[in-house]
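dumping this here before i forget
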Amino acid sequence: MSRSDITALGEPLLRLSVPAGQPFETATRLDLHLGGAESNVCAALAGLGRRCALHTRVPTGPLGRFVLRTLRATGVGTGGVVTADGTRLGTYYVLFAAPPKATEVVYDRAGSAFTGLTSEMVDWTGLLDTRVLHLTGVTPALSPGCSELALEAARRAKAAGVTVSFDVNYRRKLWSPDAAREHLSAVFPFVDLLICGAEDARTVFGLTGDDQEVLGALHDLTPARHVVLTRSHLGAA
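structure:
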């Protein structure tokens, strides 16, 4: 039996948020949480009783220990987490606002510890000792090295018979639709479960129409056995 049900490769982030409705400019305190797409998926699935693990790279010291403690507290395995001196933890600020103003997210993640993660640092045996490897489009958007690493992870998983789950999770602040389409197309041949938001399908791949039309067009882009189209508050198809 595999050590994990789901293993993810991705960057954990320090999330700092102001109290709802308070302008950042006048805030005197910030709420502290662990964020990151892959971390959130692992924490949610661990809460449902799945055996989950996150493979990543974090700074040595208090910030790295915060990540490790928080993951462990939610039941996520941390055996594949690499620590590194002299690095930083990616951070983002959530600036909640009262209507009609929109909530704003500000990222400060350039040059983070995770972007320095290389293939030689990854415990591939541990990472692939899982039923499912979960990746997102955030990782290849972070740096050329991260893009190569995500592709290598998908290739290795496919060769090892591990199911590959991939969430497009397009982030406009990280890369352009053209760059995303080019890099994600290289990963798609190795994907077994493709997850894509309706807005991402339209922005990155130019796909429009009803749910079944978009699902069919996404299926044409990949040999994935399963394709999920997420539609915000409307659920998924």
